[in-house]
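To illustrate the input format used throughout this study, we show a single complete record. The first block contains the structure-token representation of the backbone; no residue identities are included at this stage. The design step must infer an amino acid for every position from geometry alone.
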């Protein structure tokens, strides 16, 4: 009698009782969208990563668009709570706290939702809107309101450019040695620039 092979295809269709197919699909979608972006991801590929039949995507979410919305566009953290945490502490160390917090959050998931959004901005308008809303309004817009009253919108945009650029280099294009550098190496290198954008001299205002 032959022994069961560990290379047999995984079961398709509904999972055995006790397994959450919807959660498996959401986790698989985050991974595939992070790797391929919205256009490059396929329903079949996401279902395959989750180990279920592609029909399960339609069963649980209705479409790839709805799956993207629930897996990626719903943020895995509370921006208000994050801002409150970042603003706790000396103002002159705000840049350091922000860089360390973002790198810690993103490193935990290899870029996670951020990577999926960046890879999707050219093909998915909602991804662009979420990036703009998150970085300019809900994060750095709120932080800047409580930092200095000098061109807060420009400062928020400068901060967003620094953090999005940092994320792209580390998680999307993966330039070395930046991509594999430890957090304690990157924080003192990046934080002073971010701190200047937040509270320092950014040049005279123009008419």
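Output of the design step:
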């Amino acid at each position: 009698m032959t022994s069961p092979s560990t290379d047999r295809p995984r079961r398709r269709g509904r999972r055995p009782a006790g397994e959450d197919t919807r959660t498996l699909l959401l986790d698989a979608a985050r991974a595939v969208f992070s790797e391929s972006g919205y256009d490059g991801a396929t329903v079949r590929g996401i279902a395959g990563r989750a180990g279920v039949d592609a029909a399960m995507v339609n069963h649980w979410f209705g479409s790839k668009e709805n799956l993207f919305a629930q897996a990626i566009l719903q943020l895995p953290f509370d921006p208000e709570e994050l801002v409150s945490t970042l603003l706790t502490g000396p103002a002159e160390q705000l840049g350091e706290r922000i860089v360390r917090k973002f790198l810690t959050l993103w490193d935990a998931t290899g870029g996670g939702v951020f990577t999926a959004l960046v890879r999707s901005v050219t093909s998915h308008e909602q991804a662009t809107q979420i990036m703009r809303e998150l970085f300019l309004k809900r994060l750095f817009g709120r932080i800047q309101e409580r930092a200095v009253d000098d061109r807060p919108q420009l400062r928020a945009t400068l901060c967003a450019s620094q953090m999005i650029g940092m994320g792209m280099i580390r998680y999307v294009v993966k330039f070395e040695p930046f991509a594999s550098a430890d957090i304690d190496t990157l924080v003192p290198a990046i934080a002073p620039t971010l701190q200047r954008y937040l509270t320092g001299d950014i040049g005279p205002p123009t008419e």
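Structural context for interpreting the output: The chain is about 65% helix and 0% strand. The CA atoms of residues 5 and 11 lie 14 Å apart.
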